Amino acid sequence: MPTIVTHAAVPLCLGIGLGPRRIPPVLLMTGIAFSMIPDLDVLSFKLGIAYANVFGHRGFTHSLLFAFALPTLALLFKKTFKVGYRRIWGFLTVSLLSHSVLDSLTTGGMGVGWLWPWSGERFFAPVQVIKVAPFQLAQYLKPNGIAVIQSELLWVWLPGVVIMLALIALRRANNDAISSPSV
Ligand SMILES: [Zn+2]
């Protein structure tokens, strides 16, 4: 996995980029939570469940079914989010799905179980560029941990911030165009 904080980069950059009118704070916060939820499966290690098991790490919580089902359930709370169904579902699905996509881009671990429950196969993206993060926090102080942070900054945060700034610039340009129509 990339570090848990880095998983939040996708909803955070996208949400701030799109602005609070399109992505209200509650939806943004839920998106951030959704981007981290799949890694609750690390608890399986404590329960003695093997990594390769579908209920192990990167198993069913990283599947496409989970990524589509959980945002669908969230629609039950539509009123809380103060935007339409499509916006809620779209933002939460992108947030949740981004987790397994980022995991599939990492250089280690077992790949993600995208096809659960139809298959227990684990998948990686065609390229792996993000250095896999260690599980123990203390490891981050070692050279390898610092390399992980550098790799996440380069491959996740940098593109995320660029997209965020581009979206903000686009919004400003649109607002300007609306508030000052050409004569
Ligand atoms: Zn994960």
TrEMBL record:
The UniProt GO MF terms for this protein read: hydrolase activity
Question: Among its keywords, does the record have rRNA-binding?
Answer: no
Question: Which superkingdom?
Answer: Bacteria
Q: Which Pfam families match?
A: YdjM
Which parts form a coiled-coil structure per UniProt? none
Annotated TM spans: 59-77, 89-116, 153-170
What are the alphabetically sorted keywords of the record?
Hydrolase, Membrane, Transmembrane, Transmembrane helix
Q: What is this protein called?
A: Metal-dependent hydrolase
